[in-house]
Amino acid sequence: MTTETAGPQPCAHPWRALSVCLVAAFMTLLDVSIVNVALPSIKTALHASEGGLQWILSGYALTFGLVLVAAGRIGDARSRRATFMAGLALFVVASAACGLAPTMLWLVVARFFQGIAGGVLNPQVAGLIQQLFQGADRGRAFGALGAVIGIATAVGPVLGGILIQIAGTETGWRWIFLINIPIGLVALVLARLLLPEPIYGESKGLDPVGVFLLGAAVIAIMLPFLQERTWHGHGKWLLLVAGLVLLGVFVAWERYTDAPMVDLGLFRLRSYTLGSGIALLYFAGFTSIFFIFTLYLQNGLGYSAFDAGIAITPFALGSGAASAVGGRMVGRLGRPLVCGGLGVVAAGLVLTWIAVEVHPGAGAAWWTAVPLLFAGLGSGLVISPNQTITLSEVPFQQGGSAAGVLQTGQRVGTAVGIACVGAVFFATVAGSGGDWAAAFRNGLLVVLGFVLAAFALSLLDLFGHAAKPILRQHVG
Predict the structure, then answer these.
(1) Structure confidence by residue, pLDDT tens digits, 109-154
(2) CA dihedral in degrees (288, 290, 291, 295; nearest 10)?
(3) Statement to judge: residues 214 and 348 lie in one domain
């Protein structure tokens, strides 16, 4: 068994290596949101049922979250470059299978594999940042990753709308997947050339029992939220109970085994524990904004997929710009930067609510542009700085598995947030006789609740770290 050795590995061109990682991460995160605008075309082309369409979204999210921690552990223990390239190669093949899918079943299965590939690839990005950069450069690198996360999430509907408009509604949805092929192949070549080679030493096992227990727990916890709208009745929530029990068994096993998949000592680090909680709560809120906003604009106001995507662009622009700035400032300001960002997001959401209250009609996209830009600026000061601080005390040898746990929390938060916000949104539509503006405002209040909960947790972390260094670098 092998593992990468303790010290950070030299790399001739770390920023070029990072650019390869970011391109791959962008593709996998983009595929979380870009498919939404293609669902009507897919339904027509493949004669899909509502349940089938739901599984196109849920299957990707579920398998993505399922493998994150195990993939991070494999990258830490064996080779981050090899694991990254394996995930990227699988993503290219799965994208081709999606784009060429002749039936609905084929597409759903291909999306499962696409999600697995994304889950394998993404923890390696954070692990490689931990490995390649130290000090202020690490903050800037995480700032670039935060910009990618924010932009990929927000611009998916825009790019999807553009591709469908160019290629037509009958085949445009296929290009949403096929465009990944040339980009992914180029990234594979560059990854082989630019990513650092591992230096091997001794390693313990990969904890297959832990992999099974955590995987089963993630499936049981996420499924009832992902299928909240299609699985009727209350029986589905028994899965959540089972998932929490499995999570408890997983923790007990990790304490018992000599080669745990996740070092539970990470959670003795206050910055890691509270930062992971902030990420879970914030992703529950911010990713839900795009879900209900596009529904409001398209179903309620008759916007096209392209126009609805353009309406979200101010948030993406603000998030991307602020992420770069936040990455440079986090080393000096630390947790107060995240607290301030969450406050700005909350203020932007309140202003968005007011804008829709005053102007709920066809011009809503114009009236919400500035508030969403403001919220996006705040978001850029949350995602990457929080990730930098959360991983700052983690030894770089555990960077992949620690990032996997953090990103699993983000995926669970996204599923929980969309289920909760969506439930309020659709209940309002049904109960108000089709008042989509009221539904959006009520959903926005739930989003605001998640953001304020994250803000409260950031304050707890801030006051707990008042007399401590902002970022402590561990090099093994």
Answers:
(1) 999 999 999 999 988 988 888 888 877 788 788 878 877 877 777 6
(2) 140
(3) no
CATH code, domain carrying 388: 1.20.1250.20
Q: Write down the pTM of the prediction.
A: 0.82
Give the chain's radius of gyration (CA, Å): 21
Binning pLDDT at 50, 70 and 90, where does residue 75 land?
A: confident
Nearest to 94 by CA among 108, 106, 110: 110
| Two structure tokens written together for 165 | 């408009």
Contacts for 335 with CB less than 8 Å, ≥ 6 apart: 389, 458, 461, 462, 465, 470
Position 394 confidence tier, pLDDT thresholds 50, 70, 90:
confident
Residues 223 and 165 placed together within one structural domain of the fold = no
Q: Which domain holds residue 226?
A: 207-260
Looking at residue 3, its pLDDT comes to 42
Per-residue pLDDT of 4-61, as tens digits, reads: 444 455 566 888 889 999 999 888 888 877 887 787 788 888 888 777 877 887 788 8
Q: Is 200 helix (H, G, I), strand (E, B) or coil?
A: strand
Contact of 388 with 41, CB cutoff 8 Å: no
Structure tokens at 134: 């130290």
Residue 24 CA, chain-centre distance (Å), reads 13
DSSP state of 196: P
Instruction: Identify the residue whose tokens are 């990005």.
Output: 125
User: Which of 245, 260, 275 marks a domain boundary?
Assistant: 260
Task: Find, among 285, 307, 342, the residue nearest to 457 by Cα.
Answer: 342
